[in-house]
Write a structure and sequence with these properties.
- With 93 residues, the chain is mainly alpha-helical.
- The protein is built from one helix and no strands.
- The chain has one helix spanning 2-92.
- The longest helix has 91 residues, at 2-92.
Length: 93
C-alpha cells in the first residue's frame, strides 16, 4: 500500500515536470523573439545616440563659427564708426 502511494506521488511529480517542460518549450520562441527584438532596439538606440552626439558637436561648431563671425562683424562696425567720427571731425575743422 505504501509503495503504491509512493508510486502515485512519483507519477504525479513526473506529470507535473513534463507539463512544466512543455510549457517552457511553448514559451521559448516568444521569449527568444522578445530578446532578439530588445537587442535590435538597443542597437538602434545606440546608433540614434551616436547620431545625436554627432549633431550636437556639429551644432556647437556652427554656433562657435557664428559667434566668431559676429565678433568680426562687431569689430568691423567699430572700425567703420571710428572712421566716420574721424571724417566728421575732419569736415568740422
Amino acid at each position: 500500500m505504501l509503495i503504491s502511494l509512493g508510486l502515485i506521488i512519483l507519477i504525479g511529480v513526473l506529470a507535473k515536470l513534463i507539463f512544466d517542460i512543455n510549457s517552457i518549450k511553448t514559451a521559448m520562441p516568444g521569449l527568444i523573439g522578445a530578446r532578439d527584438q530588445a537587442l535590435r532596439d538597443l542597437k538602434l538606440s545606440r546608433n540614434e545616440g551616436f547620431k545625436l552626439q554627432k549633431n550636437l558637436r556639429q551644432s556647437k561648431l556652427l554656433l562657435q563659427s557664428i559667434e566668431d563671425n559676429l565678433n568680426k562683424l562687431n569689430q568691423g562696425t567699430a572700425v567703420v564708426e571710428d572712421n566716420m567720427e574721424q571724417i566728421e571731425d575732419a569736415l568740422d575743422s
